[in-house]
Amino acid sequence: MTKYLKRQSLRIGAFVLLIIVYLLNESLLEAATEYAGKNPGLANRFIGVMLITVAALLVLFTWLYNRQLKRYNPRQFGRKPFTRQRVARLILAFIIIYVVQVAWSQLIVHHLLPMPSNQTELESSIRQLPVWNNIYGVLIAPVFEEYIFRGFFFNFFFAKKSRLSTIFGVLISGLIFGYLHTLSFSVTTLLYASLGWVLAGTYLYFKDIRYSIALHFLNNLMSLI
C-alpha cells in the first residue's frame, strides 16, 4: 500500500510539473503580447525565447511519451495507419465537437449562458499580437495539451485496460481540461470539459495521439474562421 501511494504521489507530482512547464512556456507568449504595443523589441525577445523552449519541450514531451509506451502499454497506443475509415470517423468526431460549439454559442447569443471570460481575454490577446497568438493557439497548444491531458494523463493514472478505468479516465481528464481553461468551476467549465471528453474518447478509440492532436487542431482552427 505504501509503495502504491508513493508511486501515485510521484505520478501526480510529475503530471503537475508537466502542466506547470507548459503554462510557463505559455506565459512567454502572454508577456510578448503585453509588450507588443509598448516595447516591440522586448516582445520579439520573448517570442524568440518562447520558440526555443517550444522546440525543446516538444522534443522532451515526445521522448517521454514514447519512453512510457515502451515501458508499459496495455492499451496498445502507438502509430496507427491513416485509412479512409479512420479519417471518416475522425471527421465524425469533429462534427460532434462542432455541434457542441454551435449549440453552446446559441445559448450565449440568446443570453441563456454567459460569454466565457477566457474567450474575451483570448480575443484581446489576438488583437494585440494576432500572428503569434493564432499560431500558438492552433498549432502549438493542441500538441502540448494532447500530450498532457490525454497521453501522459492516461499513461500515469488510467493505463489499465478496463471499462471502469476508461470511463473514469475520460471523465476526469475532461474535467481537469475544462477547469484549467476556466480556472473556476462554472457552466463554462462544462463546455471545455465536453470538448475534453470527445478528445479523450478520440485518443482511446484510435489509440494514436496524432488523431486527437488533429481533432484539437481542427477545433481551434474553426474558432478562428
Structure explained in plain terms:
The chain has 225 residues and is mainly alpha-helical. The protein has one domain (2-222). It is built from 8 helices and no strands. It has helices spanning 2-35, 40-71, 84-109, 117-128, 130-157, 163-182, 187-206, 209-222. Helix 4 crosses helix 5 and helix 5 (130-157) packs antiparallel against helix 6 (163-182). The longest helix is centred in the N-terminal third of the chain and has 34 residues, at 2-35. The chain is globular and about 55 Å long. Belongs to the UPF0177 family. Residues 129-222 form the CAAX prenyl protease 2/Lysostaphin resistance protein A-like domain. It holds the Pfam family Rce1-like.
Number of DSSP helical runs: 8
Q: Choose one word for the global shape.
A: globular
Broad structural category: mainly alpha
What is the radius of gyration?
A: 18 Å
Secondary-structure element pattern, one letter each: HHHHHHHH
Q: Would you identify the regions where 5 or more consecutive residues have pLDDT less than 50?
A: none
Query: Into how many domains do the coordinates divide?
Result: 1
Strand content: under 5%
End-to-end distance, in Å?
52 Å
Transmembrane segments: 47-66, 87-109, 135-157, 164-183, 189-206
Keywords: Hydrolase, Membrane, Metalloprotease, Protease, Transmembrane, Transmembrane helix
Domain CAAX prenyl protease 2/Lysostaphin resistance protein A-like: 129-222
Protein name: CPBP family intramembrane metalloprotease
